[in-house]
Design goal:
Strand content: 15-25%
Distance between the termini: 31 Å
CATH class: Alpha Beta
Order of helices and strands: EEEHEHEHEHHHHHHEEHH
Number of helices: 11
Number of domains: 1
Largest sheet: 8 strands, mixed
Radius of gyration: 18 Å
CATH superfamily: Alpha/Beta hydrolase fold, catalytic domain
Strand order of the largest sheet: 1-2-4-3-5-6-7-8
CATH architecture: 3-Layer(aba) Sandwich
Shape: globular
Helix content: 25-40%
């Protein structure tokens, strides 16, 4: 991973949305809006190399710390459902985007892991608000096959359903649990100490770890037809999808029917030696593919 400039998390600007306050990193002040959305266990600094490149191409590039991740606030109502995440994305577009020639506020969405689900949700809720969509490390659920192998890979989702014990297990020994996740999810890549320290700082804020695990708890405990109404439909927005073939968290077989989940899939980029973090493991390729996709049309 590239060397990262030091980021003072506490000094970052914030935007107030319904029920939550989000801190964000911004590069570029003018041009079309590009929102970069992180997943777990990660934070907005994961997008620093891409933010600079997007700004150089004329975009206003913004990476929020997702709700609950320090220095963003936790959700006042404890809502970490996909619908809440997607509504955050649309609220960010309302706040940061400038009306285009049609008078509509739109954005490019680039999401990884939970950020990818938030991006899918926003694109399906309001496709006219999203000009292009890039997703990495998470499949579209419209036609993702169930496999026994994935059930075993998803052990942590079930572990996170337990009360209080996951918070203790994840945080003990200076968040060694997070180190192990990165090692197992991306077996041929090693995350920088600086990046892991930043991620752990985002999970160490008041209530932040409970909030991050709350994404998974809401996935199971608040699962309802609204989830499928948002994520189960085909995505109409022009899309680019990345998958690491060695991803220890999300099996590449779940992307088998991606072309049937998108009405306008411009590419499924497979990284033969890639794991769960394609944008970090091969940033040059990721940036090259994303910028090429954004230049289309």
């Amino acid at each position: 991973m590239m060397n990262e400039p030091a980021i003072d998390l506490a000094a970052l600007p914030r935007v107030t949305l319904p029920g939550v306050e989000l801190a964000y990193i911004e590069r570029g002040q003018d041009g079309p809006l590009a929102l970069c959305l992180h997943g777990f266990p990660d934070n907005a600094t994961t997008w620093l190399p891409l933010l600079d490149k997007l700004a150089a191409q004329g975009y206003r590039a913004i990476a929020p710390f997702m709700r609950g991740y320090y220095p963003s606030s936790t959700a006042a109502d404890g809502d970490y459902t996909v619908k809440a995440l997607a509504q955050d994305v649309l609220a960010l577009i309302d706040h940061f985007a400038r009306p285009d020639a049609d008078g509509q506020k739109r954005a490019v969405l680039i999401g990884h892991d939970w950020g990818g689900l938030a991006a899918y949700g926003a694109a399906n809720l309001a496709p006219d608000r999203i000009s292009k969509l890039v997703v990495a490390g998470v499949p579209h659920v419209h036609k993702a096959p169930f496999t026994l192998a994935q059930l075993f890979r998803s052990w942590y989702i079930f572990f996170f359903q337990l009360p209080w014990w996951p918070e203790r297990a994840v945080s003990r020994r200076q968040f060694r649990f997070i180190d192990r996740l990165y090692d197992s999810w991306s077996p041929q890549w090693t995350a920088s100490t600086a990046h892991l320290d930043s991620v752990k700082a985002s999970l160490s804020g008041p209530g932040s770890l409970q909030a991050a695990l709350g994404y998974y708890r809401c996935l199971i405990r608040r699962f309802d037809k609204a989830f499928w109404e948002i994520l189960g439909r085909k995505t109409t927005v022009p899309s680019l999808v990345f998958v690491g073939l060695l991803d220890g968290s999300t099996g590449s077989e779940l992307f088998r029917y991606s072309d049937q989940c998108h009405e306008d899939l411009r590419g499924l980029v497979k990284l033969a030696a890639g794991g769960h973090f394609p944008h970090l493991e091969d940033p040059d390729l990721f940036i090259h593919k994303v910028l090429g996709f954004l230049r289309q049309d």
